[in-house]
Amino acid sequence: MAGREAILERIRATLSEEFDCDAAKITPEARFYEDLDLDSIDAVDLIVRLRREADFEIKNEEFKSIRTVGDLLALLERAGAAGSAE
User: Fold this and answer.
1) Domains of the chain
2) pLDDT in tens, 40-55
3) Burial of 45 (0-12, 13-18, 19+ CB in 10 A)
């Protein structure tokens, strides 16, 4: 569970610092476009930043399926990013 929390904190920190999102709104249920006001360019930039930090690859079909913070969190967990994100 600590790995999951560490990944969520990394996502939260990146969204608040780089995209000026309100940290209180960044929950696993938060939708990137509707709740956090990100656009598609922001979403791509977020993935690129996290990919660089956690050293993981993401397939186009996986990227297209990400709608919420929880979707991204699950993807990073599956990619084995938990150890890199801590």
Assistant:
1) 2-85 (1.10.1200.10)
2) 899 888 888 877 776 7
3) middle
